[in-house]
C-alpha cells in the first residue's frame, strides 16, 4: 500500500445456494441506494449444489448470473471456494482496481442453503479467515461441540460470523438480545411466536372470538395449499424449528450458553404430531389422518375460550430457572400475542431489568425472500 493512497474495504462475497432469498440478496446488493456502498461489494461466486460461477474482482458483471450459472461446468467444491476466497485477500488481486485506492479485502461466505453439510464447513472457512453470514439455522442449533468449534475457529483467525436472519428472518431479534446482554441489562425471560407457519395456523384456529370454528386439520391443509408449510406439515407441527431458534437465542445469553449440549434436541419440545402419525412420510396422508385428531384440538380451543384465552405455539426462555421450552400455551385475549398478531407474523417479547413492567417487543413478518435477504444484507453491511 503506497503511502498517501486511500484505503477502502472491499467485501468479497461468495453465495452458496441461490434460491429465492439468494437471488433476492444478489438483487438487493446490486441496487444498494448508496453508490459508494455499492462499490464496496464484489460478488466472487454463486453456487448451486451442482455448479459454481466465478467473477473477476473489479467486474460488476454478475447481473446475468442465472444464465452464467446454468452455463458453467465448474463443479461446486467448498474447499476450492475457501482457497479462492482467502487468496483474494492478498492485495495483488485487487491492485489497480481503482486509481489511487488500495483495497483491504474482507472475504465472506453467504450460506443460503438448509444443508447440514455446508453448515459443518463453517469451522473450516472461519479457520481460513473467511467470515460467514447465513440464514441457515443448522450450524448454530446443533450440538454444542459444533458451536464451540465455530467460536474457536473464529477466535483463532478473527473471522466473524453473523446469523441475524436465522431467527425471525429480517427482524432485529439476535441483534437486540446481543445489545441487551452486552450493555449489561439483565434478561429475565424471552417469549415469542417464532414459527410463521404455526403463527398462521393458530391465528386462524383460535382467534378468541368463539369457542369453535374450522377444524385443525382443515386449517393445516389450507396453510399447506398456500405454501406456508413444509411439503409435509409434520415438519412444522413437530416444533423442531422453534426449538432450533430457541437454541440460537439461548446461546446468546452467557448463563445459558452451555445449557443445550445436543442443541435443539435438548430443548423441551411439545410436538403436535400425534404419536401414531410419526413416520408418515406422505404429506397428503398426514393431513388425512390428522383429521382423526380434530376433536382433541377442538377441546383445547373451547377450554381456552371458556377462560377468555387463545392457543399459541410459543417458545419460552426463562433465564433464572434455565427453562427452555417450545410449547402450546394459552394466553388471555388482551395479550399482545393475541391483539397484535396476524397472518404469519413472528412476535418476541424481551423481559429485562431495564424494560421492567413494559417489555421490549419486536414484531413483523418472520419469513419471505425480501425480508430474509434484507437480514443477510444487513449482516454484510456490518463488515464495513
Ligand atoms: N425463506 C425464508 O423465509 C427463510 C427465513 C429464514 C431462514 N430461512 C432459511 O433459508 C434456508 C433455505 O431454505 P429452503 O427450505 O428453501 O432450503 P432448500 O430447499 O434446501 O434450498 C436451498 C438452496 O441451496 C442449494 N443447495 C443445497 N445444498 C447445497 C450445497 N451443498 N451446495 C450448494 N448449494 C446447495 C439448493 O440448490 P440446488 O438447486 O442446486 O439444489 C437450493 O437452491 C434454510 O436454512 C431456511 O431455514 C428461510
Ligand atoms: C450468532 O452470531 C453472533 C455474532 O453476531 C454470535 O455472537 C452468536 O454466538 C451467534 N449465535 C450462535 C448460536 O451461533
Ligand atoms: C434464507 C434463504 O436465503 N433461503 C432461500 C435459499 O434458497 C431457497 C431456494 O433454493 C429458497 O427457497 C430459500 O428461501
TrEMBL record:
<feature type="active site" description="Proton donor">
    <location>
        <position position="245"/>
    </location>
</feature>
<dbReference type="GO" id="GO:0050661">
    <property type="term" value="F:NADP binding"/>
</dbReference>
<dbReference type="InterPro" id="IPR011147">
    <property type="entry name" value="Bifunc_Aspkin/hSer_DH"/>
</dbReference>
<feature type="binding site">
    <location>
        <position position="137"/>
    </location>
    <ligand>
        <name>NADPH</name>
    </ligand>
</feature>
<dbReference type="Pfam" id="PF00742">
    <property type="entry name" value="Homoserine_dh"/>
</dbReference>
<feature type="binding site">
    <location>
        <position position="113"/>
    </location>
    <ligand>
        <name>NADPH</name>
    </ligand>
</feature>
<dbReference type="GO" id="GO:0009086">
    <property type="term" value="P:methionine biosynthetic process"/>
</dbReference>
<dbReference type="InterPro" id="IPR019811">
    <property type="entry name" value="HDH_CS"/>
</dbReference>
<keyword id="KW-0521">NADP</keyword>
<keyword id="KW-0486">Methionine biosynthesis</keyword>
<dbReference type="InterPro" id="IPR005106">
    <property type="entry name" value="Asp/hSer_DH_NAD-bd"/>
</dbReference>
<keyword id="KW-0791">Threonine biosynthesis</keyword>
<comment type="pathway">
    <text>Amino-acid biosynthesis; L-threonine biosynthesis; L-threonine from L-aspartate: step 3/5.</text>
</comment>
<protein>
    <recommendedName>
        <fullName>Homoserine dehydrogenase</fullName>
        <ecNumber>1.1.1.3</ecNumber>
    </recommendedName>
</protein>
<dbReference type="GO" id="GO:0009088">
    <property type="term" value="P:threonine biosynthetic process"/>
</dbReference>
<feature type="domain" description="Aspartate/homoserine dehydrogenase NAD-binding">
    <location>
        <begin position="17"/>
        <end position="162"/>
    </location>
</feature>
<dbReference type="InterPro" id="IPR022697">
    <property type="entry name" value="HDH_short"/>
</dbReference>
<comment type="similarity">
    <text>Belongs to the homoserine dehydrogenase family.</text>
</comment>
<dbReference type="GO" id="GO:0004412">
    <property type="term" value="F:homoserine dehydrogenase activity"/>
</dbReference>
<dbReference type="InterPro" id="IPR001342">
    <property type="entry name" value="HDH_cat"/>
</dbReference>
<dbReference type="Pfam" id="PF03447">
    <property type="entry name" value="NAD_binding_3"/>
</dbReference>
<comment type="function">
    <text>Catalyzes the conversion of L-aspartate-beta-semialdehyde (L-Asa) to L-homoserine (L-Hse), the third step in the biosynthesis of amino acids that derive from aspartate (the aspartate family of amino acids), including methioinine and threonine, the latter of which is a precursor to isoleucine; production of homoserine leads to a branch-point in the pathway as it can either be O-phosphorylated for processing to threonine, or O-acylated for processing to methionine.</text>
</comment>
<comment type="pathway">
    <text>Amino-acid biosynthesis; L-methionine biosynthesis via de novo pathway; L-homoserine from L-aspartate: step 3/3.</text>
</comment>
<keyword id="KW-0732">Signal</keyword>
<keyword id="KW-0028">Amino-acid biosynthesis</keyword>
<dbReference type="GO" id="GO:0009090">
    <property type="term" value="P:homoserine biosynthetic process"/>
</dbReference>
<feature type="domain" description="Homoserine dehydrogenase catalytic">
    <location>
        <begin position="172"/>
        <end position="381"/>
    </location>
</feature>
<dbReference type="InterPro" id="IPR036291">
    <property type="entry name" value="NAD(P)-bd_dom_sf"/>
</dbReference>
<keyword id="KW-0560">Oxidoreductase</keyword>
<feature type="signal peptide">
    <location>
        <begin position="1"/>
        <end position="23"/>
    </location>
</feature>
<feature type="binding site">
    <location>
        <position position="230"/>
    </location>
    <ligand>
        <name>L-homoserine</name>
    </ligand>
</feature>
<feature type="binding site">
    <location>
        <begin position="17"/>
        <end position="22"/>
    </location>
    <ligand>
        <name>NADP(+)</name>
    </ligand>
</feature>
